[in-house]
Amino acid sequence: MFLHGSPPFCEAGISSQSDSYTFTRRRCTLIVGNDEKITTVADSKHSSILRNSQYLSVMSDGNKTYRCGLIWFRNDLRLSDHEALFRASEACETVVCLYFIPVALQGMGYGGLPRFSRLRARFLKESLTDLAGGLSELGAGLYVTDSGFSETLEALFREHRVDALFFHDEPGDEEAREAEICLSVASRFGIEVHQFFGASLHHPDDVPFEIADTPDVFTSFRTNVEKTGNIRPPFPKPVYLKSPLQVRHDSFTLPSWLSECAGKAETSEHTAFPFVGGENAALKRLKSYFWETRGIERYKETRNGLVGTEYSSKLSPWLAVGCISPRAVFAELLQYEQQRVRNESTYWLIFELRWRDFYMFQMLKHGKRSFNLHGPFNKARSWGEDEKGLEAWKCGRTGVPFVDAGMREVTATGYMSNRSRQNCASFLSNNLNIDWRLGAQWFEAHLLDYDVSSNWGNWAYNSRVGCDPRDRFFDVVGQGERYDRNAEYISLWVPELKRLSTEAMHRPWKNSVDAGRYPRPVVDLEASYTRLYRESRKS
Predict the structure, then answer these.
(1) Which of 89, 267, 415, 468 is the most exposed place for a label (fewest CB within 10 A)?
(2) Is 3.40.640.10 the CATH classification of the domain at 387-434+475-538?
(3) Are the CB atoms for 362 and 453 separated by under 8 Å?
(4) What is the DSSP letter of 288?
(5) Domain locations in the chain as residue ranges
(6) Number of helices (H), then strands (E), in the chain
(7) Residues 21 and 176: beta-carbon distance below 8 Å
(8) 8 A C-beta contact, residue 439 and residue 428
(9) Residue 498's CB: how many other CB atoms inside 10 A?
(10) pLDDT above 50 for 23
(11) Architecture of 21-257 per CATH?
(12) Tens-digit pLDDT profile for residues 310-368
């Protein structure tokens, strides 16, 4: 699966002692409501900073324990199934909510490539606006800042006399550093910290292995997590929140650069789906795909589609920024199976969510090594440089129509199908032999459903340096002929070839006169596959 804070890059040879993101697991029993007892786990990869008492019961007698809690929102822009928010609402007299936009998003990433497109900016703006509206209805406000994270925290801690901090941990190197900053400031102020993990379908404490022992092959990972059968139910949406009066009235403003960037985003008329950010839009799509169109019942058969709104769930952008959780999707799916139908397609959506978990656990296990040129396993591969080829790939002018269609779609819409992503990634890293991280960085900038684990994990996988035990690559022309048999996708995104026959649209270099100004392939495809087969035999 290729569903979808971002990391710096490191060359191979980093000390393995500091590469992974380790977790310390601590249990506590909390009282929920009147009598119901549940066991929860708060995960910390920074146990040396945190107090030993941080995970003591916060509701032992049903009364509020903290004067004011700060809830730090990250890629969890929702009200439902948000453990940090739910715990704070139960434990704190008042709450202050904060979202921090890393300043680095305004700059350039690896290879001098951008990190944040206008379409991503618009989706984030919509998601934050929806979250702020939901919080306001519950009685709370939302601060949004893009600079001075430490200073902002210190000011909020002082102004509101904060004595508890609640947030979700996330995989990724920059994400870990943000958490370290937050924890360091909290420690200086003597603030109790409560950390949770809510990004995955399977909670790290519920899988039958430690993070460090996570299987490096998906099939092994899947069979292990399926044996447990343990997926936690979603947390309910808080009923009421109380914030200091000035927070509710004046807190929600967005950085001007984000609003300006979002305002310049244009929606292509050819988009596969008109994505709108926010939890409400996510729930609307979930309801539509499951209960209205019943597309979920045909998911396994249609998931390799390329054109249209119903060939896949299209939930990945909302999952990426946390407008909906995988556990909420799973809970809805169980209800659907009980009331409508349970078949191979309903299972396959869970299967794909476990792929998402797999890459998340891989990131937690391998840490910074996930961004090495040779991947987390230091797989030997020779790499070349091809600036012309890279530019042609980014612009959708490689001369290979199936690849060009995908690249034009992602820059125009912020989305592309799983099938298209795999082929575009394989073409850049294998046929062109270009540093795969340049492609991963380009996808980071443009994909609405970008998340650090899925993006970088999938790129490494499709570039033959990741967790695929076999040395594989894609026949990008043959893939187009198989999955775009009538050239409908190519016709949509490479319209200059529409006058050709279906067969010629897949191989226009054989019809140089009729292909007009469409470029010839930037690489000798036959020679590139000869090289790849030779390398594969050696590995």
Answers:
(1) 267
(2) no
(3) yes
(4) I
(5) 21-257, 387-434+475-538
(6) 21, 7
(7) yes
(8) yes
(9) 11
(10) no
(11) 3-Layer(aba) Sandwich (3.40)
(12) 999 999 999 999 999 999 999 999 999 999 999 999 999 999 999 999 999 999 999 99
